[in-house]
Amino acid sequence: MGRENGENWHVRKCAKACEQCEKVFQDQEALYSSLFFEACAYIRKDVCEACWKKDETVLSSWRTVFMVPPPPAEEVVKKETVESLLRKLLAKENDEDLNATFILTVMLERKKILVERDVQITEDGRKMRVYEHKKTGETFMVFDPELKLTELEEVQEEVVVLLGGKPRNAEVSEGSKDTKPD
Predict the structure, then answer these.
(1) What values do phi and psi take at 129, rounded to 5?
(2) What average pLDDT does the chain have?
(3) What is the pLDDT of residues 146-158, one digit of tens each?
(4) What is the mean pLDDT of residues 42-69?
(5) How far apart are CA 63 and CA 57, in angstroms?
(6) Residue range 87-128, pLDDT digits in tens
(7) What does the alpha-carbon distance between residue 175 and residue 45 come to, in Å, rounded to a whole number?
(8) CB pairs under 8 A, 24+ apart, for 82-86?
(9) How far is CA 31 from CA 20, 44, 66, 67, in A?
(10) Model pTM?
(11) pLDDT of residue 172
(12) Which pLDDT value is given to residue 178?
């Protein structure tokens, strides 16, 4: 048995309501989950305790607790914001922006928006990375500043500020505010 037989191994998450009576599960409510094999696919069914009865056609069943999923975490940095800032910095062609440009490129590569296609060494010995935008097919050429680990935090802080965020050390404690003596 396996995928080669046309079986679907994707099993969905716990339902938000009972499969039989359609009662919406409450946070921390006990329920029963069962796994069936139907039409060449594994099917999960979730029922409340009142609707539960043992079924011999079940491959597996278990008692579990429904937990309301937490709201999706808001991304600190939106993809569009990172991409638009990268485009803006590349258009400026300013050497002072090389580090931030590289970090933004790596962020988009990790999000699978950009794909590295090549690395070239320029005549002056600098490393240039060639990226392709997966959706648009555009090519981006970015110099690799070959940052040291000790430099990364500073550049990351710079990128956070460029994206409109506050640096980690921005919180000013009450005792350190500038005040003039009377």
Answers:
(1) -100, 135
(2) 80
(3) 888 888 788 888 8
(4) 87
(5) 17
(6) 988 888 888 888 889 989 988 999 999 999 998 898 899 899
(7) 58
(8) 82/107, 82/108, 82/111, 82/163, 83/108, 83/113, 85/162, 85/163, 86/140
(9) 12, 13, 7, 11
(10) 0.48
(11) 45
(12) 45
The pairing of strands 41-48 and 139-144 is: unpaired
Q: What six digits make up the tokens of 68? A: 């309301």
Place of tokens 């995928």: 3
CB of 35 closer than 8 Å to CB of 59: yes
- Cα Dmax for the chain: 84
Q: Is 89 exposed, middle or buried (0-12, 13-18, 19+ CB in 10 A)?
A: buried
- Tokens (6 digits) for 44: 């999960």
Instruction: Tell me the one-letter amino acid at 38.
Output: E
